[in-house]
Amino acid sequence: MKSAGEAAAAMAATPASTAGSERVTPRGLTALLTTAMAFSMVQLFLLGALGPRLVAGLGLSETLLGLTTTVGFGTAAVLSPGGGRTVDRVGPRRALVALLAVSAAALGLIGAAPGPGLLLAAVALGGLPQALANPATNKAILAAVPAPRRGAVTGAKQSGVQLGAFAAGLPLAAVAGLLGWRGAVWVAAVAALAAALWAWRALPADPPPKTGTAASTPAPPDSPVPWLAGFSLFLGAGIASVNTYLALFGAQRLGMGPTVAGALVAVLGVAGIAGRVGWSRAATPGRAPWLPGLLATGAVGAAVLLTAAVRVEPLVWVAAVAVGVFAVSGNAVSMVLVMQRSAPGRAGQDSALVAAGFFAGFALGPPLFGLLAEHGRYGAGWALVAAEFAVAGAVAFVWAVRDRRTGRVGAA
């Protein structure tokens, strides 16, 4: 079995187009990519899971809590288009170490924040790891993983995001019960720093950063990227609202304690891990174009269950599972499609553009929901989420039908 360092050396030396199918994906590399994805967004999951404590401890309003998500993902959306080019220029080791180190710094600042001002600044800093995460990890997969295994490895590393949600919702929420919310955030910061040291030791040194600006490979006329970015915009708006307000909904409307309410985020995270791995494995070239629309349809059902949970409390747990299995999995399938359809030399750029749409949705969704939550109108908020998922599904199905007419669906 190759080590993560040996795999990364091969990754740096071997173009994606020449990766041999005989190579075995090293477990160390997959674990490292999964960890990087987890820490790229864990700070925002923590803000959602610790929402009840933050509202009480820092005097945040529900709208301001939503603004933290807007700031973080708005920053990521702005930085994402350049993320792929940056990764191409500096190399995978530098990109992954920077991602994890900046995540540790952002978490440390969140834990030290005396009020909303520094909290928002720290969340903005956390947008940089998000912008680097998908381009860096996708390029690593294309270079080091044989084509038949890429769907499974993509699902595994994308599940790292939901691993972060699980960590925020259960173990770190439990730590917050013992050490306070600041202690829980500082524990996460130390873990991120340890992961940065792991990446530094496991990966070989990158070559000197590339200089100059090479001409970008043009996108093909039938590129799915604009459609996937639109799908991701509305999908992200709905998911971000659930991530940010699910625990607060449990505490304020359903009468749950802070730890139990945080467990809702953990349940969503576990379901998201299973969904991302399973649906990414199912995303063969012939089937993948139809999956985003189908998953968005399931997500609409999940949002309807959240609406019903306002009156029937136990449905909130079923809804949390459904959001993870359907809505959260849509982003992983879209990344599989990017790798299947990107022109040579465009995987990093295309990944970043689709991620930018997703992050823009994350920035826009929570403030709209927060306006309703601040007045106790959670039922209307979940109905808004259902509408966002429905629009995402419509965009995905329109593209899949167009793609079928051009003869792409069903191709090997």
From TrEMBL:
Q: Where is the signal peptide?
A: none
Q: How does it sit in the membrane?
A: Multi-pass membrane protein
Give the UniProt subcellular location, in the record's own words.
Cell membrane
| Residue ranges of domain Major facilitator superfamily (MFS) profile in the record | 29-405
Q: Which domain of life is it from?
A: Bacteria
Keywords, in A-Z order: Cell membrane, Membrane, Transmembrane, Transmembrane helix
What residues form the membrane-spanning segments? 29-51, 63-83, 95-125, 159-179, 185-203, 224-248, 260-279, 291-310, 316-339, 351-373, 379-401
Pfam families, per the entry? MFS_1 (PF07690)
Check the record and name the SUPFAM superfamilies matching this protein: MFS general substrate transporter (SSF103473)
Asked if the keyword Nuclease belongs to this entry, the reply reads no
Protein name, please?
MFS transporter
The protein's organism comes out as Streptomyces litmocidini
Q: What is the lineage of its organism?
A: Bacteria, Bacillati, Actinomycetota, Actinomycetes, Kitasatosporales
